[in-house]
Amino acid sequence: MDVIQQNIGKIKCPLGGEKVYKDECAYSFDNPESENGLYICMNTFLGLGKSHVERHWKKTGNQVYLNLKRRRIEIPKDDQPPEKKPTKMAIGVEGGFHVDDKSYRFEEETSIVVLPNWTVIPFPNTELPDLVQLSAATILTAEDAWKMEEAAAMACTWEGEKLRVSKHADNLKQLDNGKKIPPKGWKCERCDLTTNLWLNLTDGSILCGRKFFDGSGGNNHAVEAYEQTRFPLAVKLGTITAAGGDVYSYDEDEMVEDPHLAKHLAHFGINIAALKKTDKSMVELEIDLNQKIGEWDVIQESGSKLQPLYGPGFTGMRNLGNSCYMNSVMQVVFTIPDFQNKYSNKVEEIFNNCNNNPPDNFNVQMAKLGHGLLSGDYSKPPIEQQDSYIQPPTGIRPQMFKSLIGRGHPEFASKRQQDAQEYFLHLISTIEKSSRGQANPTDCFRFEVEERTECCQSKKVQYKRREDYCLSLPVPLEAVTNKEEAAAYEEKKKELQASGKTVDPKDIVRRKLSLNACIESFASPGFVEDFYSSAIQAKTTAQLQTRLASFPDYLLVHLQKFTVDETWTPLKLDMSVDVPDVIDISHLRGKGLQTGEEELPEVQAAPPQVNIDESVVNQLVEMGFDREGCRKAVYNTQNQGVEAAMNWVMEHMGDPDFTVPLQLPGSTSNKTFVPNDEALTMIMAMGFTRDQSIKALKATDNNIERAANWIFSHADELDEPMETENTDSTSNPQQKKFRDGNGKYQLVAFISHMGTSTSVGHYVCHIYKDGQWAIFNDEKVAKSEKPPRDLAYLYLYKRI
């Protein structure tokens, strides 16, 4: 025990809220189930794989580690708990889709290890000093750091969130029409449907609900009734119990809570205490729809016997509760040499240069992820197990990375399903912040967009340039090639619905079009209404044409499949897109100002401007629309409210410049920024300098709330010099260099989404490696037999 006594001064107990990393190495994906287990520093409480322990000792001087080994023991089938049916549209969370195997239990072995001689002392051991015993015991009983962080992040997300109380609940109008609802025998009052029925809490009408994406559901009669009567609240019949029921607010366009539901139902003679649940809730219906045959099976290649793939570059990623969007994006970006050279080949270098806590160091976690995916250390063929031991699952569990990149973000910190394209842009932004002054792997995606605007009256033009990382293409329904067949399918679907039947997913007919049609739609000129022309000093119509001023090494193509229907309900276009292996977009090359073209003059005086109601903007953004497009909607409708702004969005969401930042009439990008004095004082009162406060206000158009959020999320940018006034960073191509080359590209990967919207469903990616297509479905990696490229959402092309 002398070696322990020599180090007793460096041994601590995690009693003061310190983070204990006992589930995974900070620098690799070694864990207690690895061959050598996990070594936990008894001073810093950092978990380490065996290959990193000596480096950590030499860097910190800490010699004593708690070694934790864990093995899986098979549980006989008769002793296994029954599998629970999912009750939430989620993966890997309580009540969600089943991901963990419950056919095993864990057996643990612990010991104290002292460097440099790797002296092993069994634990528990009463001969150890009390401090060492207490330290080891508290480490073993402490909650792992990532679980604590996840719990904190989830505290304000949907997993623990109650439905909002409807604004109509307290003062709901109920008609004294003498209507009494019988306990059974319900039927829609406008058709013959007897399922998916909703009782309006104002007039007592019983009507069927919305149609679902597969043709099932109702005939929209409850929605139509609301549009006629404006009676806002309805409860789904069959879901009512003493605990409540599914209540929907058509006015608020969401599921809500009605604390007075018992009273409202009693008005129509319904005794809530006597009712039992007889129909599926909205969550259960969504789960059923997503478990049906169709898009899910096609994209996951469920009909094929797929051959598993192992080794470097074929490592799967565990789903950490609807993290499939992250898994797919990270698998794809780490196929690119720029990312491999920046991160996966620099583990030791980044280790040596890391002076802060590695779980909080973005470069460390990116290097760890890259090495985990590409080394092959965590992707080995299964071996035959002896006795009752079970081999641990293959693949990696990127918990530290997910916690770090989602930290502080209202969506990516949660377990809600997210949009893969939005996550990709978030990843790009995070990498750029961490790569200042260093090689930036995102340069391979970055390209310059040229926008040419021509005033339809004066014929004068304006050229602007901006950077982008993703080519977002519209999905032109007018270019569908099987219109007659699709129309016949829609008629058949209506007939089945009228008879209360649903469409067999095997008979679904998807609309077909080509990727080239999407590219041509992007290239076609569009019109901008209410364009302020400095040539005529008035609003007019302008023609907008978008081109690419540079072609990146890797082109990420995004198909705009997500939209809204006439009732403002988000939906996904069920399309089959003919996607070629090779595309040539050379014709999209921008040429700049041409001979004979005359530029629009700079604005001399600004006309009256309208303040933008950010509360209305936020309501529209919550519906899933782009913020800049929502700001334009509120501005162009003169702050007349959500309904007017939504109508504008529906009319203009297809405009080429819908997502381009709003430039108010009369304003110019080279106009000197003047901060709002009151807002500036408030930001400076938080402890920031005048220059830092001005930078935040400039970045957020003098919006005090957005500036406060911006300043905390851009801490690494605060002390950088501000751009010189009278300089337009978006129109000056000399400020940033863009990689460029020919416009011919080869398809190398694609990401597919299964489900009705970005907030539900599942993501899978396919990658072309070693002369074959491989499917990456979370931790499952296999040779692809039928790559479903026609149903994908994001496509990665490499310049030839």
Automatic annotation (TrEMBL):
The active site is at residues 324, 762. GO terms for biological process: protein deubiquitination; proteolysis. The keyword Transport does not apply. Residues 611-652, 674-714 form the UBA domain. Its EC number is 3.4.19.12. One of its GO terms (molecular function) is cysteine-type deubiquitinase activity. Zn(2+) binds at residues 188, 191, 208, 221. Residues 164-272 form the UBP-type domain. It catalyses: Thiol-dependent hydrolysis of ester, thioester, amide, peptide and isopeptide bonds formed by the C-terminal Gly of ubiquitin (a 76-residue protein attached to proteins as an intracellular targeting signal). Signal peptide: none annotated. InterPro entries: Papain-like_cys_pep_sf (IPR038765), Peptidase_C19_UCH (IPR001394), Ub_carboxyl-term_hydrolase (IPR050185), UBA (IPR015940), UBA-like_sf (IPR009060), Ubiquitinyl_hydrolase (IPR016652), UBP13_Znf-UBP_var (IPR041432), USP (IPR028889). Belongs to the peptidase C19 family. This is Ubiquitin carboxyl-terminal hydrolase.
